[in-house]
Amino acid sequence: MKKPKHHIFVCASFRMSGTPQGVCNKKGAGSLLQYLENELSDRGMDEVSVSMTGCLKLCDKGPVMVIYPQNLWYGEVTESKIDEVLDALEEGKPLDKYQIT
Question: Is 61 in contact with 76 (CB distance < 8 Å)?
């Protein structure tokens, strides 16, 4: 497998017990992950890997999405925000307006 150019992590609020409990899960992080994977496929962005994570400890900003290696943190993620973030990623620049600072 080729090393991905970008790796996107979506908080799924999983705790040590394996149970999704937090804000990101309750706000639909699971469906956002599916949307993200479909959108990446539709755009032909096969150089991007996607993973769900345990709690990222930013519950007040959930759902949270992080893009590496750029270390870009996005909060209150929705499908429309994912579209804008991916547009910017394709252009090779960060989208500042949704970043968690």
Answer: yes
Q: Domain extents for the chain?
A: 6-98
Q: How far is CA 59 from the centre of its chain?
A: 14
Rounded-to-integer distance, Cα 12 and Cα 32, Å? 10
Residues 6+ positions from 86 with CB-CB distance below 8 Å: 39, 40, 43, 45
Is the per-residue pLDDT at 19 higher than 60? no
Q: How far apart are CA 53 and CA 72, in angstroms?
A: 15
C-alpha dihedral sign at 89, 62, 36, 6:
positive
Single pTM value for the model: 0.88
Let me know if 24 is exposed, middle or buried by CB neighbors in 10 A (0-12, 13-18, 19+). buried
Mean pLDDT of the chain: 90
Q: Which fold does the domain 6-98 belong to in CATH?
A: Glutaredoxin (3.40.30)
